[in-house]
Design goal:
The chain has 197 residues and is mainly beta. Helix content is 14%, strand content 50%. It contains one helix and eight strands; from the N terminus they run αββββββββ. It has an eight-stranded antiparallel β-barrel with strand order 1-2-3-4-5-6-7-8.
Length: 197
């Protein structure tokens, strides 16, 4: 019964991301170029550095008043290629994540690999806003999430610094959609630097 309930919760999250993209598409699509890449580039590498903002709800992605800074730091290396999703500029990513828990959060350290898809919903004068989602496989279970498989959701605001360089402010949530009884989730906020080539 818990697995069915967890599957329903995951499907609700995926449907919410797709619906948000479809609703925003006609109003904010920024043309045919991809703001997450430079002119005539098909590859990008990025480094994300995030600070833990507490376990719990997916709403921590968009509500900073819910953030509770924790003794956790996340590093993520990302390789991306451009694509489109429902005619919106997007990117397909391969991610390697290392979470460092320290002090009383030491047992929450993990390494993960995953794939994700990000879509830019708004693009104006070098600024862009987007959302993303993807599955990740971790090397351990812990007291926050009792499974190796987690799903990562991301909200980000980016700025093109030059044709090849961009910076992003992001928030990210990892959880398993209640596939297991223990699913407090991980939340992070931070900055990323990306280079396209």
């Amino acid at each position: 019964m818990l697995k069915i309930y967890g599957t329903i919760r995951i499907m609700k999250k995926v449907i919410a991301v797709v619906v948000a993209g479809l609703v925003c598409m006609p109003a904010v699509a920024g043309g045919t170029h991809n703001p997450m890449f430079g002119t005539d580039t098909n590859n990008s590498v990025s480094l994300y550095v995030g600070q833990g903002t507490g376990a719990g709800t997916l709403f921590k992605l968009v509500d900073p008043f819910l953030w509770e800074f924790e003794t956790m730091t996340s590093l993520m290396a990302q390789y991306s290629q451009p694509m489109t999703i429902f005619r919106l500029p997007a990117r397909m990513n391969f991610n390697v994540v290392q979470n460092f828990g320290y002090r009383n959060k030491r047992g929450l350290s993990f390494t993960a690999v995953g794939v994700s898809w990000d879509v830019s919903l708004f693009d104006w004068r070098g600024f862009y806003i987007g959302i993303g989602i993807g599955p990740y496989m971790r090397d351990s279970r812990d007291r926050y999430v009792n499974s190796r498989l987690v799903f990562g959701e991301r909200v980000f605001i980016g700025k093109n610094v030059s044709d090849n360089w961009r910076i992003e402010f992001f928030t990210q949530h990892f959880s398993n959609g209640d596939f297991t009884e223990t699913n407090r989730g991980f939340n992070f906020t931070g900055l990323a630097v990306g280079y396209s080539f």
